Amino acid sequence: MGWLSWLCLLFLLSTTCQLNCTCSSSNSSSSLSSGHLCHPDDNSALLQFKKSFSIDTSLERELLNVTTFRSNSKISWQKSKDCCAWSGVTCEKRTRHVIGLNLGFCGLQGNIHSNSSLFSLGHLKRLDLSYNDFRGSPISSKFGGFVSITHLDLSYSNFSGPIPSEISHLSNLVSLNLSDAALTLDTLSLNRIVQNLTNLRELDLALVDMSSVLLDCFKNLSSSLTTLRLNYCHLQGNFPESIFHRPNLRVLNLGFNKNLTGYFPKSNWSSALEVLHLSNTRISVDWHHLTRNFKSLRYLYLRNCSFVGSYLAFLGNHTKIMQLDLSSNSFGGQIPWSFFLNLESLIYLDLSNNNYVGYFPEVDSNSTSISSLYDFSKQQLVGPIPRHLTQLCLYGNQLNGTIPSWLGSLPSLEWLDLGSNQLSGNIIEFQSRSLRSVLLNDNKLHGPIPKSIYELVNLRWLFLSSNNLGGNLEIENFSKLRSLIGLNLSFNHLSLSFNHLNNNTWPQLWLLDLSSCNIREFPYFLRTSQNLNRLYLSHNRIQADIPKWLLDLGKDSLMYLDLSHNFLTGTVGQLQWKKLQYLDLHNNSLQGELPIPPPSTYYFFISNNQFTGEMPPTICSLSMLRILDLSNNRLSGKIHQCIGNFSQSLSVLDLRNNKFHGVTPRTFSKGNVLRNLNLNGNQLEGSLPPSLLTCTELEVLDLGNNKIQDTFPNWLESLPKLQVLILRSNKFHGDIGNPKTKFPFQRLHIMDLSYNRFSGLLPTKYFEHLTAMINSQEHGLKYMGEGYYQDTVVVTIKGIKFEMEKILTFFTTIDFSNNTFRGEISSVISKLKSLKGLNFSHNELTGTIPPSFGEMSNLEWLDLSSNKLVGDIPEQLANLTSLSKFNVSKNKLVGPIPHGKQFDTFENDSYSGNTGLCGLPLSKTCSAHQSPPPSFQQEDDLEHGNGFDWKVVLMGYASGVVIGISVGYLVLFNGKPNWLVKVV
Q1: Are the C-beta atoms of residues 926 and 932 closer than 8 Å to each other?
Q2: At CB < 8 A and 24+ separation, what contacts does 573-581 make?
């Protein structure tokens, strides 16, 4: 689930759930005369129970900040007071025994042991311990001793382990909530619960791992059941159809069980369901049955589902729908506004992540009912403004046109998400003051930010990033938005200043993204933002040392910090953040010793700076790392062997272009997830560690430009996902030999062994099995890498070294140059139909150029220079209409040079040193019997090659069109596409 989709879901939760913390409420006990005190045993038990815990009032602060919930709870129990008057305590009038204990959201921290005084409260009828932190305690079997209990809620309190079967002893239970991600439930315990709890009306097991449960168990659920929540439970198999027939069932949530299958019952029936949640399941949604049988629905959530029939037929008969989620379903065409706006009770509509196109309709603000007149071709609707709508989420579609003015005047609208569309024009003025979230990011909006946004005093989230908004902007303009939690203005054409902003303007600020906002200084107003979780200031013009106040900012809260692509100088010093997960300082001018983030860090980017010295031993504490990028610095010393132990989580280890010496890490543990190992451009010696064989996820192995001395590591051929192998400029030696496995290097598409001491014959047997080069299945612009990291390699293309900052998955090349390979070039190589470049130059190859090379239709450069090749240049090579670089100089070739097509573009230096060649472009003419052979195709085909056109790659990459290198040299030297490829 994406970041913005997650926010959309959280808003939904906040509008449908009511979490009340009784700890901050008034006395919840029954009305009692002051002369009667609670039972002394219960009084003592409660005090002892309280004493076993600490109280953390900031518990779940992050969730509370993101949604609307607040908790300022305190358990103010005192020994000298009547326990029946304490917060969260309810007593029975006659016996004075405690019968209710409601401590939800009270910040309890500690373990609940089986000998806890809680279990001596034998008269409890209601117990709520939800949303606390019991530190992984198991749910004790002692909970089964509350024989009188009717309501039990232990949800989201960090219990762990199996749910005990003793819960089934609570035969009076009416409501049971055990939702927690660390709990498990097996078939036997579930069977006992559903068979014995015959009075159960509410059952909530969300997030409980029930992957091993047999789903037929649910057939025995009580017929009085009104609520069943089983979302995120890892359920597998067919869900029983009979559950839909439960006569009293009002709420059914099976969402986010991706392996759950099933169907609606085929027969006619009338369901009382009001809430149905099937999102992210494989249950077949039959609109015909929904229309006919689910007439009471108010809340319907069908994100990413499997549909049967047309969903439009459903909407006309369900005008009482209040919340509707049809997101992530690949629905296309125009949004059927007339249907949605006819839902008079609709307050929540989520159509995000579909393929809807077209424009917003116009509505009649004076009308009170929907008219039947709807013009789909013009997308115009004569109807009323949907005045009850509180959330409209259309993120991730292909809507275009402008934002209609009526959206700004919806009186109840709180959440508006139009991000990631093709909307243009100016942002509308907003008259409605109910708005809490405005998300317009990733569109084509332009002009200034409208002044009305600065007056939305209830606004909590404002995302305007990645548009074409412009102008000078004082961030002080947002000062009225005191409730602001998230502000994202990044990647527009704004120039921000914040000289006069008050330090305490946004006390709840959780996210601030001002990337690419032409900022020249650190936003000093942040220094008191101690709840800040995410701060992004990348791609600005900040030229300064990192200030001390920033290093002290959010010590207990900051998790994401991005200061990359600035002009930061000086040293960093000790990093204090306790919960940091993401730190990006790359592309600056920082100096001094390498800073080490806290052990909580997952992503650490610090490349392209000027750090010096050795790796501190404290780097071994970063065992949670997924990406470690220290490349392009001046670090020296040895690579700590402990880094190999990170391999259970480490996906990318990029240490290229430093001064590390010694040997590569020797140990990579079994089961590691290492995907990219890049040690290029250091001074590493020794041999390769055989433990690399355990790196079964490895895709990129770049050890070029070191001093590694070893024979060819043919044992790497069995790595199933290896795509890039670069060993250039080392001291590898000896024959490559024949494969040891049946399918060697089957996914390899970049192989660079140049500038070594390899000898012997070319490895023909390997060429026969390079599947990814024989017939690439990749299409379109796809790059190697993941999320936060794009793979980068240096390759030689047409005689020039390039740093490819993004590696296209269909880019294929073989470079065996500058070795001492001997023997003939086998025609087997011509099977590599997807090959873009082939370099065998500076070897001792003999024999002729295979005529079958003319079949390599994607070949763009071919370098066979500085060998001992004989014979003529095969006329079949004129068929290579993608060939833009050809070099056979310094061989012993004879005869006429082919002409026509690409061969008319090559210069003299392509053929120099071959005294027996004749014909253009050489000055030596051919005799009559040596006349150059004609090209095989018509001249009109000259510009139409079958290969990948590098002119497009290097000239127009930013527009997403593939162009190429042939004419691209001019662009490269002018520095246009630096972010994609650089001349080294």
Answers
A1: yes
A2: 573/546, 573/548, 575/551, 576/551, 576/552
Q: Where are the beta strands (DSSP E) in 391-485?
A: 391-393, 398-401, 415-417, 422-425, 437-439, 444-447, 461-463, 468-474
Span 355-410, pLDDT tens digits: 999 999 877 655 544 333 344 444 444 356 677 899 999 999 999 999 999 899 89
Look up residue 383 and give its amino acid: G
Give the separation between CA 331 and CA 318, rounded to whole angstroms: 20
Amino acid at 803: E
The residue with tokens 């998790």 is: 559
Q: Are 860 and 954 in contact (CB under 8 A)?
A: no
Q: Which amino acid is at 19?
A: L
Amino acid 319 reads T
Say what the pLDDT of residue 843 is. 97
| Residue % of the chain over a pLDDT of 70 | 84
Asked if residue 688 lies in contact with residue 708, where contact means CB atoms within 8 angstroms, the answer is: yes
Task: Please state the length of the chain.
Answer: 984
Q: What secondary structure, in 3-state letters, does 627-645 show?
A: EEECCCCEEEEECCHHHHH
SS3 283: strand
- How far apart (Å, rounded) are the C-alpha atoms in residues 400 and 356? 10
The SS3 assignment for 445 reads strand
- Per 3-state DSSP, the chain is made up of helix, strand and coil in percentages (nearest 5) of 20, 25, 60
DSSP conformation letters of 4-58: HHHHHHHHHHHHH-----GGGSS--SPP--TT-PPPHHHHHHHHHHHHT-EE-TT
Residue labelled with tokens 């959780």: 510
417: which 2 tokens? 């998400």
Task: Give the other-Cβ count within 10 Å of 963's Cβ.
Answer: 20
Contact between residue 125 and residue 76 where contact means Cβ atoms under 8 Å apart: no
Is the Cβ–Cβ distance between 536 and 514 less than 8 Å? yes
Instruction: Measure CA 597 to chain center.
Output: 22
For residues 102 and 88, is the Cβ–Cβ distance under 8 A?
A: yes
Mean pLDDT, rounded, for 694-717: 95
Q: Pairing relation of β-strands 813-815 and 837-839?
A: parallel
